[in-house]
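Changelog excerpt

This revision adds worked examples to the README so contributors can see how folded entries look when concatenated. The first example is reproduced verbatim below.
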Amino acid sequence: DVSVSVGRVIKRGIGAVNVKVKVTTENEHSRSYLELIDEIKSASLPEKVEMDTLAVFSLMADAESKVHGQDIENIHFHEVGQNDAIADVVGACTAIHELEWEKIHCTPITVGNGFVESAHGILPVPAPATLEILRAGKMMFKGGAVQRELLTPTGAALLSNFSTPVDSFPQSTPIRIGYGAGDADTPHPNVLRAVLADADDALIQDHIEVLETNVDDVTGEVLGNLIEQLLEMGARDVTITPATMKKGRTGHIIHVIAKSHDTSKLARKIITETGSLGVRVIPTRHRLIAGRRMDSVKITVEGQEFEIAVKIAQDTHGVLLNISAEFEDCKRVAKACGVPLKDVIRRAEGAAWERF
């Protein structure tokens, strides 16, 4: 059996809520992943809570399987298979279910430094299973000023299952702020902060960096090739603007929009391809973008039926913002039928607006 108590504590001057989970059952043993699934399914949890609880433990089981090189059916949970750890996960899933948050964002997670003791011996921080869960969830993380573990596999799995990683706070208006306290006393406030905020989320919030450099001795062919390579390497957009440089020389300004994790490799590519001595990086700009997805429509041209890909832009509420036909598809049809390209584009986009 498990008992839960909730109290208020002060952590380095910050008032926070501390939840203590106590196990009253003696002689707990490690559970296999399959045993854990059976116990969760027999616990009569609300359907959504059960699904999320199973998903969280699935993340941990997958990570343990990869780290230890075992089939998932043979995985045995030690610390995370104990009743108090199970209660942690079920409690978190229940709270999130009852709060009915529309969206959860997670800024880079502080994982700590040093080493941690586990059932498998002394391991580096973050523990291998924790790191694998962060990798699978594409979560951003950083170290920390303290020599201890600040993120466990359980915490990593909960964050990966429920949240979307962001590199900074989205533009929003805070409504309520809560602090949850850990048991350990550390040099910094050992608290987890949750902010309930109101945001205009009709458009998707995106965080980017802008790379810029000036060149005055690069041919148009080299610049055209550079655009193709940068886009293939992950640049979100590339533009090149004619400019007049010092001493009246003509040149170009190269602008590249990129995610922060692509900045270094894109900057290196610009330098090696153009011979530029440096690239300016304008860090973390905030932009709002429409959600985009690809679909297709069928049109008839000169008695023949063709399928044309279209790009559909919508806001997060499903409102249709724009439709554009794929250029290469339209070009192919126009050439095959001997009709103006603009007519094919107009037909494809018209068919898409009628359908979607």
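The second example, added in the same revision:
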Amino acid sequence: MSDITTNPYYKTFKTLQDNQYAIGNTTYKQRIAKLNRLKKAIEVTYRDQIKAALHKDLHKPGVEADMTEIYQIIGDIKYVKRHLRSWMKLQRVETPITLLGSSSYIKYEPKGVCLIIS
């Protein structure tokens, strides 16, 4: 059995695990800034590299890569930016009679880290 630290994805996954709680405590503005950086990276910085990889792996022409991959992700980022504030709000729920005098809320938080390799 090989040592887990020789896995090329171990360092990346470990970094995600170590920062999962810090990411969950980011503010609305910080999350929007991250989404804007991701959008810029996809649209401007790495667009040609993404298209080249799609052409090499799947033989997708550049226009098809734009339409089916890049524009789809950009659309998803825009959707998340429009809805993020409402997703981050506390959702007030009914408080049981046994906790009279207090308030109850649901706060949605990340459950953990997932590494998807395909």
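Reviewer comment on example two: The chain has one domain: 4-89. Residues 24 and 110 are 6 Å apart (CA to CA).
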